């Protein structure tokens, strides 16, 4: 492969794994180590092909629905969250569960329950069919309407315009969400906002970082799987922020020769469910192509860490094991599930 000899890489920081993804992936790894039985996982634990394939190799069995799991077995729920209906189905099959739902997603679930109790119409900004949206909507199906985009705002109907609130999928683009919310507020001027930002800190941080890089990049490469909402969003945010071209790749095998024609500066980032080994592979390939001058661009420092799921912590404690993850430095570095 040919390439320029003095090419530059602008490397986004932060990028890759967020606290919720780390917690979920490690939960499966620890369960495989500490339980002497088959570990089932409902849906992909996180939206990344490499991670899922690696866990399959270690013995995890991924299923779409709990009715595929033998009664009495152990199942881990993915980081995206589940609806009460799924939980009930698991109970009916006497499944033992480890809930790896990201605590930030759980927060949105609790908001949906609370506003439904107060008899609000809940406008959930998110993508219909996404696991997270299905889980959140399932908390209060009679009260929730999904709003996919600003173009859907005109279809929304509510019972009382004075009792309407918006919530959102955590992995959306901040700009995309607020564009939809602004249009909703034009229709419903007293539309309430959630008590805190629903857009996850990691999603926001990664978008801020790529916005910083994009104007100076001839090409932006986003490492992430096609079903990873936040990875797809990063690619779109890069284009909107001024990148001349932007592509999402699952791995270095998807790189296209023509992308590099006339390119001197490459921006690199990765979605929140992407292990850094995939980014390092990309940097190695870029160096071989002549893009060896790597300049990190940091816009935030992340030190949040979530405790492993309660059920798993208890099992590990019973076996004399502890959470061996390297603790980040900084105040409030850990958080309970």
UniProtKB/TrEMBL annotation:
Its cofactor is [4Fe-4S] cluster. GO terms for molecular function: 4 iron, 4 sulfur cluster binding; 4-hydroxy-3-methylbut-2-enyl diphosphate reductase activity; metal ion binding. It comes from the Bacteria. The active site is at 132 (proton donor). Dimethylallyl diphosphate binds at residues 47, 80, 130, 228-230, 273. GO terms for biological process: dimethylallyl diphosphate biosynthetic process; isopentenyl diphosphate biosynthetic process, methylerythritol 4-phosphate pathway; terpenoid biosynthetic process. InterPro entries: LytB/IspH. Residues 312-329 have a biased composition (Basic and acidic residues). Signal peptide: none annotated. HAMAP family: IspH (MF_00191). This is 4-hydroxy-3-methylbut-2-enyl diphosphate reductase. It comes from Brachybacterium faecium (strain ATCC 43885 / DSM 4810 / JCM 11609 / LMG 19847 / NBRC 14762 / NCIMB 9860 / 6-10). The gene is ispH.
């Amino acid at each position: 492969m040919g390439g320029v000899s003095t090419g530059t890489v602008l490397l986004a920081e932060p990028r890759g794994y967020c606290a919720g993804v780390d917690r979920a992936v490690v939960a499966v790894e620890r369960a495989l180590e500490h339980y002497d039985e088959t570990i089932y996982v409902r849906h992909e634990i996180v939206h990344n092909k490499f991670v899922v394939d690696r866990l399959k190799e270690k013995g995890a069995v991924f299923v779409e629905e709990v009715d595929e799991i033998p009664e009495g077995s152990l199942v881990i729920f993915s980081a995206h969250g589940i609806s009460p209906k799924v939980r009930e189905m698991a109970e009916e099959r006497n499944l033992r569960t480890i809930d790896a739902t990201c605590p930030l997603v759980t927060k949105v679930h609790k908001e949906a329950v609370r506003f439904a109790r107060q008899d609000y119409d809940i406008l959930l900004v998110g993508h219909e069919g996404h696991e997270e949206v299905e889980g959140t909507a399932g908390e209060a199906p009679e009260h929730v309407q999904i709003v996919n985009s600003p173009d859907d705002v005109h279809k929304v109907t509510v019972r009382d315009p004075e009792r309407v609130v918006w919530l959102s999928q955590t992995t959306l683009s901040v700009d995309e969400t607020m564009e939809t919310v602004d249009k909703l507020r034009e229709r419903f001027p007293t539309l309430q906002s959630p008590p805190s930002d629903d857009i996850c800190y990691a999603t926001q941080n990664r978008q801020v970082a790529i916005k910083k890089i994009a104007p100076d990049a001839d090409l932006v490469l986003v490492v992430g799987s096609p079903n990873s909402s936040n990875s797809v969003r990063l690619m779109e945010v890069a284009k909107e922020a001024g990148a001349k071209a932007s592509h999402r790749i699952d791995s270095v095998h998807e790189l296209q020769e023509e992308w590099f024609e006339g390119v001197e500066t490459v921006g690199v980032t990765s979605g929140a469910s992407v292990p850094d080994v995939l980014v390092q592979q990309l940097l190695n390939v870029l160096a071989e192509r002549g893009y060896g001058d790597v300049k990190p661009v940091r816009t935030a420092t992340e030190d949040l860490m979530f405790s492993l799921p309660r059920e798993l912590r208890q099992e590990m404690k019973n076996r004399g094991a502890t959470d061996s993850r390297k603790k980040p430095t900084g105040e409030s570095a850990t958080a309970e599930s």
